[in-house]
Backbone:
């Protein structure tokens, strides 16, 4: 299990990186943390002619801005976990990353790398889909901004061109309205600690002073070719106060229309669906409880 | 463009405190460079796809899989392997030349075949630097990225807790010469 | 339930007899491992070393039409390519332990590939990277053939044949009957039957198998370094290559990175040695993980058990009928014998008077099997324990009680079981009582009742296990009467140098079993010298003494016995030298701390170092005619060994029988099917403990391995014959987060057949844990009337039998369990 021979460049600027990709006629690959790419290289499932190492580029900034959380392409998952500002304002991302691999992979693996790899069971991808996120993509001719839902096309597939580089992801802010409190929750089922999820669910719920749900962002992963928002679940809880019955009926409604999807030797589609429905129910309740909790622990639950 | 070379590239890094230089093919894995070029064979290869954790080393003090990194990517960086653990805490070494953590592993019989042991030590070292007073559960969580097939982990957990206790107490558990 | 892992209780009197044995002592091997100074096979380097990699078949069964190596050979740095056709002309097929003349097992497929992943060609190159580049360019043309994956389907006459030269895919079949099974079944009041499935898993060490071979045409010696744990390894290499046995030198001073039975890379070694001779270079072949998982022939047992028990109202089991089908994969090698070892413990810990045992080995188009921890006893013990639970369920008896009623009583030892083996010693009711006490079972059951009332699925399991130790591998003869081997020795060489330093030479490599600690403790005990000052060296196969290799939990028993005997010879010689020097008869010499003195006259003494000096340097002061120096060897045959099986298959196998009882406590998440092991209690009796930490480590590691087999690990083949779980992302080894804290207590009934009363300890944890965990899962599901009969049990398996509850989760944890179950049952939705 050794990689094929390839050229290697370590560009000093984003423009150089893109130029290198362009010069490789589609056979170049970007390497950042490498935690998804390196196993593929070692198994020779990926056979690039050129590896463009972006670890030296000035893309390590982690900016908690008014318009969102901007993470450069080489921000490590482990670095995000240690950020108090992210924990305060983007708790869902922290909750998701806690489930990603192990400390030894998080110290190297990047948030953007996980999104670009587009594994349908990836926790960070689910968090991005639920939270809303935009990728900044630099190509030879233009820089474009693409919403995560448009970026992730399916199983390990994105709309990234081979000569483009994702330089950053910007996670959308949580709902921010007067008198409204926000709670998040992330749950998953995996065979072992640190494994990819068989099924995962995430929710961000905003609740008014009466305890009614004002906005809901809910999604699941593990069922299909990519994580999906569950619009039917979201609309079923808006305007309502959460309780077990509502969470159950909303989740049931959301899943009634999902007829087929992904399954493998660790869990059939029907197993994943049943677990995902349960997890959805759970994150609805947990997020709502986190939103309505009096203390300051929001974001540290689940 | 900074560099582009098809065959061999020069890599400089600091390994266990010593500056080293080598010529590597871009595709050479860091673990192969450590083992084959530097003859630091304490770091082991178990799966080459990032699951077993046997190749764990410290890069700039952070535990990483050296099978999931190219040697050339470590250019300009500091790497610590099991052979270098003792050099990082020279004042605390036992008569056998071990750190308190290594000594606790010995005391608790936290190893059998020894194959995962260097990686366990590296991950445990990183864990204790970050969390000097972990619970047993935190130790299990922190070591879950390295698979041991011999011990069932329990004596490893005990060793890490013992090392943490001794570190906090500022003692090594041994008589210094 | 502390993380300190319970207590150690043992017969204090037994330990106090000893100075070092049974006492805390840091294992000596650990030092080098902790400093990163272990010497594993991948660390062996030498001038001119080349690297081998193998091409693997993509098809489960195919004819090899052609292999075009021209492009591969053109890669700079490639030394050469070897195909099966070439190898066939140059070596003899590898050894089969059963009579299967139609099976020709070579390191590379010849003519046909018989499973997906089988090796078809090898490349030797300057490094592994280049070797893999060449593999990419190797063009193999295949013609696909029909294949068979299901062992029962493979038994039918119209099945595709794995080996056309065999009359059928059934490679071996025999029905043994011990005792009057017909009568016992006719007279018993009740019968229950069960079908138990032990799916394919293995030991999967973190170090893959590796070997380095170097041929020296000048000395005509083949040097081999390997991560090996295998009986008759050097001679099998020699036989395959047509060399004399004294031309193969296997270096056993290689640390083996875990084995648990599986490190038997004979095909790897023959291939690598052939390549070294063929190309005139030293060659290293270290499998990568895919080589290991797909094509190493190192999978483990894959069995279907049909078991029937005949028993009376009181729960006493009179007789068992066991039929087992083992899916050997394509090449049986030694693995079929794993249905033979269980013959030596075929009734478990119970007074069952008659047994019918039918063993069937079937070939399929899967990778071959190898020995795995317990050598087949783990699956068989699983089946025995499962049928005991079925008996208990049938009668409404407690699972503890059914054991108590059937245990061999402590006053019945030595106890001969129907299949002819004599158990040496034990006190099974006491060990069970000890674990019941340690677990505080009454309190656990109260807790369980409360938890169940809250709607939780919690279970308390039990399994017991007989662990044969000693490795009297008479199943070789039992399964193949042509193989009349009854000698299973270990040899140990002890010497004391002129300065008084002690060196012990042992004849095998170690894979984490702490053999250096074992023999230094024992030699220190016998000579009354500090074990930490004793150096232990691993011989090579030409300079070392006979060995059956460290299998079958035998080294404490056989190597330990040999070390003791050799040390005693040294001590006797030293006493003789001292007697001569002191001018007294040797009978008047006493021994303390390695010094010899005259009985009742402690001032008249010759100290240890002086005796060593006399022996090595002062011939003029030595007893006339005495051999110079201080050295002794002893080769010990396995205790109680030496008799061939009787024609009816009655056979006395291993000398020692350890025993353990396990009580795991589990909780099932009814929404995901996940099993969490909340706590785990074990009481364990392996006779006299030589090193408490080593024993504890063996038990703990075995349990973790068994939890893997019970809940996580499985080699799964797709319908297309491809191995689906070929990486460690899909073959799920338990991590520290999956394995619970285990509370272990020791109980000691010394063996009468060993020098210190010690027994074997390496395998029992693995033999018990799968049955124990399944027992606990089944107890958790008992309110639903569900009992699983297979391993591994997956979360999906569990959810499949649980009512679909999202629709009722508003009542989760509410109401009485019976009412709730009824309610949920009515709404259960079948996926």
Residues:
């Amino acid at each position: 299990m050794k990689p094929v021979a390839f050229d290697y460049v370590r560009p000093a600027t984003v423009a150089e990186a893109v130029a290198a990709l362009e010069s490789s006629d589609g056979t170049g690959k970007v390497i950042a943390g490498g935690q998804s790419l390196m196993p593929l290289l070692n198994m020779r499932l990926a056979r690039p002619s050129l590896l463009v190492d972006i670890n030296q580029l000035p893309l390590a900034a982690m900016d908690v801005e008014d318009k969102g959380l901007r993470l450069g392409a080489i921000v490590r998952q482990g670095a995000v976990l240690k950020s108090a500002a992210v924990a305060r304002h983007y708790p869902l991302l922290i909750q998701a990353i806690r489930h990603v691999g192990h400390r030894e992979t998080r110290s190297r693996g990047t948030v953007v790398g996980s999104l670009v790899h587009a594994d349908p069971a990836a926790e960070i991808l689910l968090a991005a889909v639920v939270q809303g996120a935009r990728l900044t993509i630099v190509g030879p001719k233009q820089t474009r901004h693409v919403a995560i839902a448009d970026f992730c096309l399916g199983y390990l597939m994105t709309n990234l061109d081979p000569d483009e580089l994702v330089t950053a992801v910007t996670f959308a802010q949580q709902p921010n309205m007067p008198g409204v409190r926000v709670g998040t929750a992330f749950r998953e089922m995996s065979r072992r600690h640190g494994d990819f999820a068989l099924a995962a669910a995430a929710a961000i719920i905003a609740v008014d002073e009466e305890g009614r749900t004002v906005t809901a962002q809910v999604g699941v992963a593990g069922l299909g070719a990519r994580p999906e928002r569950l619009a039917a679940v979201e609309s079923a809880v808006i305007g309502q106060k959460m309780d077990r019955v509502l969470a159950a009926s909303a989740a049931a409604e959301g899943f009634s229309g999902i007829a087929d999807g992904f399954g493998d030797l660790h869990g059939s589609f029907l197993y994943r669906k049943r677990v995902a429905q349960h997890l959805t129910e759970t994150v609805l309740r947990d997020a709502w409880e986190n939103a309505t909790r009096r203390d300051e622990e929001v974001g540290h639950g689940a | 463009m900074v560099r582009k070379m098809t065959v061999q590239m020069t890599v400089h890094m600091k390994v266990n405190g010593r500056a080293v230089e080598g010529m590597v093919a871009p595709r050479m894995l860091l673990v192969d460079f450590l083992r084959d070029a530097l003859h630091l064979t304490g770091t082991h290869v178990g799966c080459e796809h990032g699951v077993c954790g046997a190749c764990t080393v410290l890069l700039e003090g952070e535990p990483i899989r050296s099978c999931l990194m190219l040697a050339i990517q470590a250019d300009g960086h500091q790497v610590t392997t099991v052979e270098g653990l003792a050099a990082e805490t020279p004042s605390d070494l036992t008569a056998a030349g071990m750190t308190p953590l290594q000594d606790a592993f010995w005391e608790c019989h936290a190893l059998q075949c020894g194959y995962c042991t260097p990686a366990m030590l590296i991950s445990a070292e990183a864990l204790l630097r970050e969390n000097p007073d972990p619970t047993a559960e935190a130790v299990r969580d922190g070591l879950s990225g390295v698979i041991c097939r011999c011990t069932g982990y329990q004596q490893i957990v005990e060793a890490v807790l013992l090392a943490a206790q001794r570190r906090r107490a500022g003692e090594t558990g041994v008589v210094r010469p | 339930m502390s993380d300190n892992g319970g207590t150690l209780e043992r017969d204090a009197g037994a330990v106090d007899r000893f100075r070092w044995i049974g006492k805390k002592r840091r294992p000596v091997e650990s030092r080098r491992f902790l400093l990163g100074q272990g010497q594993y096979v991948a660390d062996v380097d030498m001038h001119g070393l080349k690297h081998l990699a193998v091409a693997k078949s993509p098809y489960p069964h195919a004819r090899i039409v052609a292999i075009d190596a021209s492009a591969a050979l053109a890669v700079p740095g490639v030394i050469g390519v070897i195909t099966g056709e070439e190898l066939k002309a140059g070596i003899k097929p590898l050894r089969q332990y059963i009579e299967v003349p139609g099976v020709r097992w070579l390191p590379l497929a010849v003519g046909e590939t018989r499973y997906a992943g089988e090796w078809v060609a090898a490349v030797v190159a300057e490094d592994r990277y280049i070797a893999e580049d060449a593999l990419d360019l190797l063009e193999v043309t295949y013609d696909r053939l029909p294949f068979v994956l299901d062992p029962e389907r493979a038994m039918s006459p119209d099945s595709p044949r794995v080996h056309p030269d065999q009359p059928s895919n059934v490679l071996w079949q025999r029905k043994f009957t011990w005792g009057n099974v017909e009568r016992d079944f006719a007279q018993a009041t009740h019968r229950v039957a069960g079908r138990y499935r032990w799916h394919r898993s293995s030991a999967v060490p973190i170090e893959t198998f590796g070997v380095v071979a170097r041929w020296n045409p000048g000395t005509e010696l083949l040097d081999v370094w390997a991560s090996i744990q295998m009986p008759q390894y050097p001679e099998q290499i020699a036989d395959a290559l047509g060399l004399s046995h004294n031309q193969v030198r296997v270096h056993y001073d290689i640390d083996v990175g875990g084995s648990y039975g599986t490190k038997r890379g004979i095909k790897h070694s023959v291939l690598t040695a052939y390549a070294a001779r063929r190309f005139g270079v030293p060659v290293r072949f270290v499998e990568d993980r895919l080589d290991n998982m797909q094509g190493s022939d190192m999978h483990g047992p894959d069995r279907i058990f049909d078991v029937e028990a005949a028993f009376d109202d009181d729960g006493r089991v009179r007789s068992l009928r066991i039929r087992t089908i083992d899916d050997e994969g394509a090449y049986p090698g030694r693995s079929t014998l794993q249905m033979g070892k269980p013959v030596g413990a075929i009734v478990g810990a119970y007074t069952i008077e008659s047994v019918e045992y039918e063993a069937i080995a079937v070939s399929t188009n899967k990778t071959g099997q190898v020995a795995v921890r317990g050598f087949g006893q783990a699956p068989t013990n699983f089946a025995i324990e499962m049928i005991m639970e079925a008996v208990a369920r049938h009668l409404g008896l407690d699972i503890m009680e059914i054991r108590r009623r059937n245990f061999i009583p402590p006053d019945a030892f030595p106890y001969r079981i129907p299949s002819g083996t004599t158990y040496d010693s034990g006190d099974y009711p006491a060990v069970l009582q000890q674990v019941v006490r340690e677990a505080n079972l009454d309190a656990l059951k109260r807790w369980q009742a409360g938890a169940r009332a809250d709607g939780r699925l919690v279970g308390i399991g039990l399994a017991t296990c007989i662990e044969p130790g000693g490795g009297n591998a008479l199943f070789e003869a039992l399964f193949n009467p042509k193989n009349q081997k009854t000698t299973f020795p270990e040899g140990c060489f002890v010497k004391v140098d002129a300065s008084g330093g002690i060196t012990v030479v042992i004849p095998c490599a170690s894979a984490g079993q702490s053999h250096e600690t074992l023999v230094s403790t024992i030699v220190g005990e016998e000579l009354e010298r500090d074990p930490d000052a004793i150096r232990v060296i691993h011989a090579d196969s030409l300079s070392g003494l006979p060995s059956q290799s460290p299998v079958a939990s035998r080294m404490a028993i056989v190597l330990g016995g040999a070390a003791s005997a050799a040390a005693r010879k040294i001590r006797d010689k030293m006493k003789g030298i001292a007697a001569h020097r002191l001018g007294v008869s040797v009978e008047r010499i006493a021994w303390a701390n390695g010094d010899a003195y005259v009985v009742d006259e402690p001032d008249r003494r010759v100290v240890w170092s002086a005796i060593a000096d006399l022996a090595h340097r002062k011939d003029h002061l030595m007893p006339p005619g005495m051999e110079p120096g201080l050295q002794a060897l002893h080769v010990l045959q396995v205790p109680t060994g030496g008799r061939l099986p009787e024609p009816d298959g009655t056979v006395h196998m291993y000398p020692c029988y350890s025993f353990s009882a396990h009580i795991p406590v589990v909780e099932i998440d009814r929404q995901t099917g996940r099993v969490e092991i909340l706590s785990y209690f074990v009481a364990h009796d392996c006779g006299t403990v030589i090193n408490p930490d080593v024993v504890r480590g063996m038990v703990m590691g075995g349990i973790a391995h068994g939890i893997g087999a019970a809940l996580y690990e499985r080699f799964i083949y797709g319908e297309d014959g491809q191995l689906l779980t070929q990486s460690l992302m899909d073959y799920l080894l338990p991590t520290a987060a999956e394995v619970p804290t285990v509370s272990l207590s020791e109980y000691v009934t010394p063996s009468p057949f060993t020098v210190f009363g010690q027994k074997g300890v390496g395998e029992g944890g693995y033999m018990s844990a799968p049955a124990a965990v399944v027992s606990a899962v089944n107890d958790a599901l008992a309110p639903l009337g569900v009992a699983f009969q297979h391993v591994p049990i997956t979360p999906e398996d569990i959810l499949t039998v649980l009512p679909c509850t999202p629709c009722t989760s508003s009542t989760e944890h509410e109401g009485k369990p019976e009412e709730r179950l009824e309610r949920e049952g009515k709404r259960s939705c079948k996926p």
